[in-house]
UniProtKB/TrEMBL annotation:
<protein>
    <submittedName>
        <fullName>Putative membrane protein</fullName>
    </submittedName>
</protein>
<feature type="transmembrane region" description="Helical">
    <location>
        <begin position="35"/>
        <end position="55"/>
    </location>
</feature>
<feature type="transmembrane region" description="Helical">
    <location>
        <begin position="61"/>
        <end position="82"/>
    </location>
</feature>
<feature type="transmembrane region" description="Helical">
    <location>
        <begin position="102"/>
        <end position="123"/>
    </location>
</feature>
<dbReference type="GO" id="GO:0012505">
    <property type="term" value="C:endomembrane system"/>
</dbReference>
<dbReference type="Pfam" id="PF02656">
    <property type="entry name" value="DUF202"/>
</dbReference>
<keyword id="KW-0472">Membrane</keyword>
<keyword id="KW-1133">Transmembrane helix</keyword>
<keyword id="KW-0812">Transmembrane</keyword>
<dbReference type="InterPro" id="IPR003807">
    <property type="entry name" value="DUF202"/>
</dbReference>
<feature type="domain" description="DUF202">
    <location>
        <begin position="26"/>
        <end position="90"/>
    </location>
</feature>
């Protein structure tokens, strides 16, 4: 069990179970940091799109995509923290690792964004050909 003098936070994670293997705990932390980095990239992409929309005659949909990217990035950061805590707690309690619940949503978002961009590019190409 964890020593009562352990001052690490959050207590809901560090206050239960036994210390996990260092490698497993660090792998969990690296995974969370990767998700946070992905979220920050989405936010940066949203900022870039919003900035670009001010320079030219870009459609309103670009601002909508920028906002969705920024919101998605923030949500991904929150999810990374929650997933880290769930996994770390499971490691400490010697329970099965929880499933990556957000991964199907991220894949669906990537597919939807790809289809949207492809459709938008096709529409623009048709408009230019006229």
């Amino acid at each position: 069990m964890t020593a009562p003098t352990d001052r690490r936070r959050p207590r809901s994670v560090y206050g239960v179970g036994d210390e996990p293997e260092v490698q497993a705990s660090l792998a969990n932390e690296r995974t969370a940091l990767s998700w946070i980095r992905t979220g920050l990239t989405l936010i940066a992409g949203g900022v870039a799109l919003a900035t670009l929309s001010g320079f030219g005659d870009l459609p309103l949909v670009v601002l909508v995509i920028a906002g969705l990217a920024a919101l998605g990035g923030g949500a991904l950061g929150v999810w990374a923290l929650v997933a880290w805590a769930r996994t770390e707690r499971a490691l400490r309690l010697r329970e099965p690792i929880p499933d990556p619940s957000v991964l199907p949503w991220v894949v669906a978002g990537v597919v939807a964004a790809g289809l949207f961009v492809a459709g938008f590019a096709a529409f623009e190409a048709i408009e230019l050909a006229r």
